């Protein structure tokens, strides 16, 4: 059955530049999210937004040092965490929320869930959660048939994991030994349903992968370095032709299911514990301070640079025009 992934990580094995990059990318994701929520409050962005605050370490750790532009990625609906970590420009993401032509959809106003950036391997997200499991098998299968060493990574929540497409996908991935990595972002809740009330596995969601003969583990998704290490091993395995990996990454959302959700169904003490003691950014910053890798000023400088980058991205997205009405007919085939 699934084992908890642990590793005695030596900070000396990382360059300071890499460690600061991890910090910077996590801060970028959080500030992107906070500013998007601000734009919603200002009435500039409407619709549902599922904040990814609290899970930045999971995306940054798995993606930033491990995936190349040519590797395929299917994101989930929580925040733009994975897209930012894969390098999609912030102005394009804001453009998708503001409905301007700066967006990846050039004005169709995709929000989180209908954008793609093929130049960076971001292939999108299917409309209904869980539908991308089978599409991901397709891109992994094509990489195998074409003998490229492209890896496919698919992100999904614990709720999506309870849907049947996961099982068809795991069966194919296991049968054909596909270069695919399943990353289950287990934040314990699907809207207000706790994962252990809705899944037949008793201990870990990753146990299902074990049943399909797929290498699997459970990991602390809020530890950016552990996420980097576990994903690196999975990527190397996929590139060596040794097949798929299923990583169940434990995390917790700091905010409700969507902006406006009261979030009163979680134990408030538990939520406080995750925010205060298990915040991926705060803990990583403390680790770097305690080990004398960085001093406070350096973090302040990174924070300010990211603030500036975000403001410039919003300005670019906001000053870009709305699409011409003909845009709606582009890509329409029937
Ligand atoms: C097939 C399908 N059923 C229901 C929904 C509505 N829905 C959107 S997100 C969500 C919860 C998903 O939970 P989880 O996969 O755990 O991700 P989380 O929101 O916790 O990150 C639901 C039920 C949907 N989009 N698609």
TrEMBL record:
As recorded in UniProt, coiled-coil segments are none
Q: Could you tell me which residue ranges the Dehydrogenase E1 component domain spans?
A: 25-324
Establish whether keyword Metal-binding is in the entry.
Answer: no
Task: Extract the InterPro entries matched here.
Answer: DH_E1, PDH_E1_Alpha_Subunit, THDP-binding
Q: Which CDD domains match?
A: TPP_E1_PDC_ADC_BCADC (cd02000)
Instruction: Please give the biological process terms from Gene Ontology that the record holds.
Output: pyruvate decarboxylation to acetyl-CoA
Region forming the signal peptide: none
Would you tell me the protein name for this molecule? Pyruvate dehydrogenase (Acetyl-transferring) E1 component subunit alpha
Whether Glycosyltransferase counts among this entry's keywords is no
Task: Name the UniProt key words of this record, in alphabetical order.
Answer: Oxidoreductase, Pyruvate, Thiamine pyrophosphate
Lineage runs:
Bacteria, Bacillati, Bacillota, Bacilli, Bacillales
Q: Which cofactor does it need?
A: thiamine diphosphate
Q: Name one GO molecular function term.
A: pyruvate dehydrogenase (acetyl-transferring) activity
What single Pfam family name could you report for this chain, choosing any that match? E1_dh
């Amino acid at each position: 059955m699934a084992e908890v992934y642990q590793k005695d990580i030596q900070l000396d094995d990382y360059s300071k530049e890499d460690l600061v990059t991890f910090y910077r990318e996590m801060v970028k994701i959080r500030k992107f999210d906070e500013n998007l929520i601000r734009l919603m409050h200002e009435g500039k962005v409407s619709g549902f937004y599922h904040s990814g605050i609290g899970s930045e370490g999971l995306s940054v750790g798995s993606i930033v040092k491990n995936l190349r532009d040519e590797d395929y990625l299917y994101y989930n609906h929580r925040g733009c965490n994975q897209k930012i970590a894969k390098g999609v420009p912030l102005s394009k993401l804001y453009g998708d929320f503001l409905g301007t032509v700066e967006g990846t959809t050039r004005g169709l106003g995709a929000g989180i869930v209908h954008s793609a950036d093929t130049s960076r391997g971001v292939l999108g997200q299917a409309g209904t959660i869980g539908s991308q499991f089978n599409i991901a098998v397709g891109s992994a299968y094509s990489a195998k048939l074409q003998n490229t060493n492209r890896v496919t990574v698919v992100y999904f929540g614990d709720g999506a994991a309870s849907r049947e497409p996961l099982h068809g996908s795991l069966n194919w991935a296991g049968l054909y030994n596909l270069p695919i990595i399943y990353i289950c972002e287990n934040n314990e809740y699907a809207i207000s349903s706790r994962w252990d009330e809705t899944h037949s596995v008793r201990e870990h969601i990753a146990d299902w992968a074990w049943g399909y003969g797929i290498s699997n583990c459970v990991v602390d998704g809020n530890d950016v370095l552990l996420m980097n290490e576990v994903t690196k091993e999975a990527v190397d395995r996929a590139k060596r032709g040794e097949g798929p990996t299923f990583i169940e990454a434990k995390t917790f959302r700091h905010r409700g299911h969507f902006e406006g959700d009261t979030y009163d169904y979680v134990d408030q003490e538990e939520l406080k514990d995750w925010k205060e003691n298990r915040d991926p950014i705060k803990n990583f910053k403390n680790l770097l301070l305690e080990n004398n890798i960085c001093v406070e000023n350096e973090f302040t400088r990174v924070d300010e640079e990211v603030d500036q980058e975000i403001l410039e991205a919003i300005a670019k997205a906001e000053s870009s025009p709305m699409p011409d009405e003909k845009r709606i007919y582009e890509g329409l085939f029937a």
